[in-house]
Amino acid sequence: MSTGNGRKEWIWYVKDVEGWMGKLNELLSGHKAYPIEVEISQDPEWSTYHNFVSGVKGI
Predict the structure, then answer these.
(1) E strands within the chain?
(2) Beta bridge pairs of residue 47
(3) How many Cα atoms are found within 13 Å in the side-chain-facing hemisphere of 48?
(4) How far is CA 48 from the centre of its chain?
(5) pTM of the predicted model, to two decimals?
(6) Which residue of 1, 8, 26, 35 has the smallest Cβ count within 10 Å?
(7) What is the DSSP letter of 2?
(8) Does residue 59 carry a pLDDT above 70?
(9) Contact 11, 41 (CB under 8 A)
């Protein structure tokens, strides 16, 4: 997760995007709309994850 300027960004790596989105929508059904945006992109090398981990001291 990264935060700043009133923004919170979570990055999830999932095997089945359609299944994950279906479950998210199922869990949120019946709730008021939340102020979220879901963006989907490919990162087969997990580069975002590895860049984050390499920048954290002690890991």
Answers:
(1) 2-4, 7-9
(2) none
(3) 11
(4) 11
(5) 0.71
(6) 35
(7) E
(8) no
(9) no
Hey, what are 57's tokens? 């001291």
Q: What is the residue whose two structure tokens read 């008021």?
A: 32
Give residue 6's pLDDT: 84
Q: Which residue has the tokens 């590895």?
A: 50
List of long-range contacts for 49-55, beta carbons under 8 Å, 24+ apart: 49/11, 49/13
Cα–Cα dist 37/9, whole Å: 10
Q: d(Cα 27, Cα 25) in Å, to the nearest integer?
A: 5
- Phi, psi angle pair for 26, to nearest 5°: -65, -45
In this predicted model, what pLDDT tens digit does every residue of 1-28 receive, in sequence order?
778 888 889 999 999 999 999 999 999 9
pLDDT value, residue 16? 96
CB 12 within 8 A of CB 48: no
